[in-house]
Amino acid sequence: MEHGIDAMVRCLEALGAAPVLRHGLLTYTLTPTHGARAGQPVESGVAESEAQLWPATPPHWVHLPADVTIPASNTGASPHPGWVGHSRDIKGWAQEINHGMAWLSHVRSVIAGATA
Amino acid sequence: MTPRRFSVAMTKAFDETLTRHLLRSDGEEDLCLAMYAPSTGAERDTALLRDACLPLEGERKVHGNASVTGRYVLRVARQARNLGLGVVILHSHPGGRGWQELSDLDADAEASYAQLVEQVTGQPLVGVTLAGKDHTWSARRWSAAGSAVDHVDAESVRVLGARLEVSWNDRLVPVPAPMPSQLRTVSAWGERPQADMARLRVLVVGAGSVGIDVAIRLAATGIEKVAVMDFDVVKEVNRDRLVAATRRDARLRVPKVDVAERACRSAATAASFEFGRHQLDVTSTRGQSTVLDYDVIFSCVDRPWPRAVLNQIAYTDLIPVIDGGIGIDTFETGQMRNATVRTHIVRPGRPCLQCNGQLDPAQVARDRLGLFDDPTYIERSGQPVPGKQNVAMLSASVMASQLALFVSLVVAPSKFGEPGPLRFSLTTHRLEHVQTTTSPACVYEKLVAHGDQRIPLAQTVADAPTNGSMAVRAVVGLVARYVVALIRWTSRR
After folding, report:
1. What distance in Å separates the CA atoms of residue B356 and residue B413, rounded to the nearest whole number?
2. Alpha helices by DSSP H, B49-167
3. Per DSSP, what are the bridge partners of residue A87?
4. Which domain of life does the protein's organism represent (chain A) (predicted)?
5. Residue of B nearest to A5 (CA)
6. Chain B positions in Cβ-Cβ contact with residue A49 (cut-off 8 Å)
7. DSSP secondary structure string for all residues of B400-442
8. Chain A contacts of B357, Cβ < 8 Å?
9. Measured between CB atoms, which of B359, B369, B441 is closest to A96?
10. Minimal Cα–Cα distance from B5 to chain A, Å?
11. Could you tell me the strand order of the sheet in which B126-131 lies?
12. Out of A78, A94, A98, whose CB is closest to B354?
């Protein structure tokens, strides 16, 4: 079974999220359907060290550009200049059949909470 | 330098596949090739057998002593190389009984392919023999350094299913001498199961309220090699459950593994008892490689990350993990609502800890990032700190159930192996079988017998977002350990 960062890259590629490795993050683009950013492509990323465990363990931190404002979010530093890590658990990962779709859906729901 | 120990392991399903081919209805010897994944422990190498590559038309001859063609060996060796695996050559002795020593003829046949296989795959050739009369496996590993070709025997061949069936190389791991102190134990299941059980290398991970009690009882039963892994020290708050620890242990912050060793040595009944002291974290790469040296693991840890590491090893490295835990619920008033004990053996063919709802991968990620111990993060998250209720009288139920599962796995009373996941509810005193199934996308079932190709769950995290408190805590921890060691040293003088 394929696992690790290459497996996550292939998952995201298959879903058209255009993954690119930069600044210690695996970045990709997705378009949220709800919230202030609905309909606009938004870049996001996960740390390489977290992607190495794909798909056994889902990444915890959702890295987003700092101008994606999410109120009351528990944030941490990001290796990507000008970005912020948002702490988020993903539920039901053990039962997921398609981990790539589940991850993008999770990130979309995080971005849906953005006010700007 | 001590030579590395060598063992072979396979699932029961794979054993059945090989047996169907090797034990022919006409009683002739037969032969086939398979692939193996290496599993590299701190002191032991294991060849994990997988992917039977049965011969195609004309690739082997059955004529008393079976033989294979070079074309067959090369085909499988190339296939193995592409997958990063090694090659196993297997043959049967239909009339054989017990561990099979290698005849000159068999040795020549295997040796003739050792160099070719090692050159193509980069992995040593492994030879395996099946004795047809009593279904004993025997194995050896060939080395082809330069022109010299030689082999070392395996110490055991382990077959993991509802039972753990071990074929022992009695020459390397002798049958233990029965002791008068074990009379009543041996009379419960007989000498052969006792001899098989006593030779297992059993590791208890986590020397808490359950782990130490488990280790003591393993030693008392006569198991020769019991080991305990825990990086922590005894604290006053542990004393209501850590029954083997003293006030002095807590005052001096004695490592829990030392308390376990003291208790196990005084309880041991084996003529030659060996205690494995591992003051290590199983989530470290060193901790993980140490785990791979053992035949059975008791998981007596409650944090998600160590449980995830052990959960994976059960599948990737074919080491059964006997896991358990207790959940105590309280009402808002603080009074007890219920206590639930869950125990299960994690192994291929049974739901993993994630599939049976005992492990949330999202919490594994958090634990791995150190977020459970980061006070700043916890304060910012606004989430309540999880309860840590535990009671010595009830943790004994976990220990009892885990040990009963061990007996089922190893002794299989009335041929009943381990029963699957169990749940005991204190309010109703009801024990039930938990009906869980493996998710079709279960990562771990897809990694059975992958060995060193496992997911690197046991590596340290370098670049997670942090607020610096982890680094400060690490330095404070180091200083504290130094001070404690100094106090202990001066108190002994």
Report:
1. 25
2. 70-83, 104-121
3. A61
4. Bacteria
5. B455
6. 461-464
7. HHHHHHHHHHHT-GGG------EEEETTTTEEEE------TT-
8. 94
9. B441
10. 29
11. B148-153, B136-145, B126-131, B86-93, B31-40, B44-53, B5-11, B156-160, B164-168
12. A94
Q: Do B365 and A56 touch (CB under 8 A)?
A: no
- pTM, to two decimals: 0.92
ipTM: 0.94
- Interface A–B counts its CB contacts (< 8 A) at 99
Rama region for B348: left / alpha / beta (φ>0; ψ in -120 to 50; rest): beta
Mark yes or no for CB contact B465/A61 under 8 Å.
yes
Determine the distance from the C-alpha atom of residue B49 to the mean position of all C-alpha atoms in its chain, rounded to a whole number. Answer: 16
CA distance B118 to B113: 9
Could you list the pLDDT tens digit for every one of the 493 residues in chain B?
678 999 999 999 999 999 999 999 999 999 999 999 999 999 999 999 999 999 999 998 887 678 899 999 999 999 999 999 999 999 999 999 999 999 998 999 999 999 999 999 999 999 999 999 999 999 999 998 777 889 999 999 999 999 999 999 999 999 998 899 999 999 999 999 999 999 999 999 999 989 999 999 999 999 999 999 999 999 999 998 898 999 999 999 999 999 999 999 999 999 999 999 999 999 999 999 999 999 999 999 999 999 999 999 999 999 999 999 999 999 999 899 999 999 999 999 999 999 999 999 999 999 999 998 887 887 777 766 666 667 788 999 999 999 999 999 999 999 999 999 999 999 999 999 999 999 998 999 999 999 999 999 997 544 344 444 444 444 555 565 566 566 666 665 5
Q: In this complex, which of A3, A47, A60 lies closest to B366 when CB atoms are compared?
A: A60
